[in-house]
Design a protein that fits this description.
CATH topology of the largest domain in chain A: Rossmann fold
Oligomer: heterodimer
Number of strands of chain A: 13
Number of domains of chain A: 2
Strand order of the largest sheet of chain A: 5-6-7-3-8-9
Order of helices and strands of chain A: EEEHEHEHHHEHEHEEHEHEEHEHHH
Helix content of chain A: 25-40%
Distance between the termini of chain A: 46 Å
Helix content of chain B: over 70%
Structural class of chain B: mainly alpha
Largest sheet of chain A: 6 strands, mixed
Shape of chain B: globular
Structural class of chain A: alpha/beta
Order of helices and strands of chain B: HHHHHHHHHHH
Largest interface: A-B, 38 and 40 residues
CATH architecture of the largest domain in chain A: 3-Layer(aba) Sandwich
CATH class of the largest domain in chain A: Alpha Beta
Chain lengths: 312, 263
Amino acid sequence: MIEVRGLTKQYGTVRAVDDLTFDVRPGKVTGFLGPNGAGKSTTMRMVLGLDRPTAGRALVAGRPFAGLARPLRTAGALLDAQAVNPGRSGRDHLRVAARTNGIPVRRVDEVIDQVGLGPAARRRVRGYSLGMRQRLGIAGALLGDPAVLLFDEPMNGLDLDGVRWIRRLVRELADEGRTVLLSSHLMSEMEQTADHLVIIGRGRLIADASLEEIMRGENAARRVRVRTPSGDDLAGALLRRHLRVHPTGDGDLLVEGASAETVGDVALELGVAVHRLAEEHSSLEQVYLDLTGDSVQYRVLAAPEPAGQVRR
Amino acid sequence: MSATGVAVRSADASTATVFARAASAEWLRLRTVRTTWWCLLAAAVTIVGIGATAAFDEAQGPAGPGSTLPATLAGEFGVLPGQFALLVLALLAVTQEHATGMIGPTLQWTPRRGVLLAARVAVPVAVATVAGVLLALVTDVAAWFIAPGLTLSLADLADSLGRIAAVLAAGSLLAVGLGLLLRSTAGALATVFLLQLVLPFLLPAFDVAWMRDLGRVLPGSGAIWTLLGEPDMTAVLATTVLAGWSAAALAGGGWSLLRRDAG
């Protein structure tokens, strides 16, 4: 369990994290979503006592992390896989970690096997790929067999195998009853991995709900995909009815907040051919873009001269 | 919630145990990077090499049977330049953590910053001091074999090694403190070299009164006096200079680790 209460971080005039309050519960994978610079990493650093909050506090398993005597037994984290002394071997890195928390060396070899680092563990980190460093960082997080785990963008730079491995790992960790907080900007990954989402933007809480709730919520209104040879005309007509229209890469139009009936009727009225008409549920990515207020696309489309824009 | 909190608290280790683990981990950190061994090798070559050379020089010199120079001078001559390899060792132990970002994981493993500070200061300072004293001892004995005209008594040895220990402890405290404060290898290293080596030799060379006075209160001057009895200053001033700079650097470095964001 992680409890974040009114957490705030001010850097000069910039408020990186603004009065953030949420809980991360055990037995679930909680996705921590937000655009770059939204304050995800800063929040995680404050939870772990690396940065001092300007206001508010965070508790890990009911206590401030910075006071723990054997923190690795309570919470393990991977914040930055590159933050390792490259001159030390992976195994020695983990041995140092184990020693600080009174963990037997036997456990070091266990986690090395668990993350699949294998014989590379005895080589210096200097020669590791990013994927190997991610595995080393995760081995460090798992070292103390903690009930709480925090991963900051663990899938960054991983190949498909690595991504699938992490997805499976966090699933298992949550199923074992652990608290898992996982930040990522890969929305599609969150859709497949997370049970619960905490979404922040500009340091503020935007949403704190289960994945299902967010997908079904008002921001996840249905949309319609329509394929027509007269895209510009139809888009113009739909825009005049105050509907939001986006072009897709393959020449279709996506119409937000409308039913297939409405779009079909508009097309009939206009007399344009429709080759495909289908209702779609928004992807998490779309919900996320809506929630974080990325309305750039709508503004572009709402501007005059839609002709060139729609085919973009 | 409160019930589990109490249970966790009672299972916690004592501060002494946490410190012992942190210090043991600091020692392991030092042992598992090559820079430490390179620094020790450089210190060994410099201290023993210069000390032995001085002894050869003495053995071949015109000094007759009447001269009674102590062999401990060899160790002191060697430590004067050789200390820098040991100061670099202590300094890198701290600044490498910041340069590589390793301070993040380190604080996740030992989030009690006061305990981490104690271990992080104690271990590199102890390693640098003990290594320097041992190397000086080897140098003294070697010099005694090389130049039989030199005298070597236990009293001389204890006095000399004690002064060397004081110089190395003060110097590595300065290095560790500046490393914690500045967090940058280049910045801290440049500052240590200026304070410990360059300015104490450079300032008096100008033959301007205020420069000479300024040079006298720099930590390097205190170190040189403690080792060689030069330049002209009192034991009280030398001790004050050494202890004062170490304490100031430690206060600044301690503040930086305890109060600032991990960075």
